[in-house]
Amino acid sequence: MQNNATEILRRHGFSFSKALGQNFLINPSVCPRMAALCGATKAHGVLEIGPGTGVLTRELARVAGKVAAVELDSRLLPVLGETLAGCDNVSIVQGDILQLDLKALLAAQFPGMPVVCCANLPYYITTPALMRLLEERLGLACITVMVQQEAAARLCAPVGSRESGAVTCAVAWFAEAAQLFKVSRGSFLPAPNVDSAVIQLRPRSAPPIAGIEEARLFRVIRAAFGQRRKQLPNALSAGLCIPKQTAQAAMQAAGLAQSTRAEALTLQDFCALATLL
Fold this sequence. Notes:
Elements: H1 2-11, E1 24-25, H2 30-37, E2 45-49, H3 55-63, E3 66-71, H4 77-83, E4 90-94, H5 102-109, E5 115-120, H6 126-135, E6 143-148, H7 149-156, H8 166-174, E7 175-183, E8 188-189, E9 196-203, H9 214-226, H10 232-240, H11 244-253, H12 267-276
Parallel strand pairs: 2-3, 2-5, 3-4, 5-6
Antiparallel strand pairs: 1-8, 6-9, 7-9
């Protein structure tokens, strides 16, 4: 598989870009597994981000009714034209997933179809890409993506655990997250210096806690984790530009010890602080 991918890329004069985080999936056993787990049927459309050489794209085309693969690097378009020959239900969209109008894209590509997302995400856009997919509430039924293993642990950690962070809270607010399986670094070309994992996010139909202004909540969460080595009153004071005494009073009213750190808080705790502050 690696030799085939290498030959195709060589023939097209392609060189890998570190700036674009290009590590193409070549393990033949991983893509069918991702396609099987992503929840797509012939009634579904699939949004793919960063198709690379199209190995996962072909598997998605087998299980789904339509695939739209968004690729930033225009140099890969002729490569994909070759590797995806015969896949009549695949469209390649050249563009930046962080800049495209996603609602318009999904409406144009998948009219009247339920849509899932399945992708081997470039490491450097993992968080911004996932947050766009979640925050814009695109109606995606499921998001199944491969990310760096360390990122997978953080994204899927229980809120209030030692591994949790601001992004953990944000993901938990918008979706239910779970790790599916790990993928070794040797499954990619070129091989990165870290292993990966496939995770799945199932967007919620409604926030887990009602009556909270999201912008206010996330300001508090970002402030709390902005200086996570500090005790929470200090972090909130610095991050929100408020007196430390104000933060201390809010914590006391929320029933939180002054020695509490951000990673120990639940979503309910953060909502209480956001309301009090």
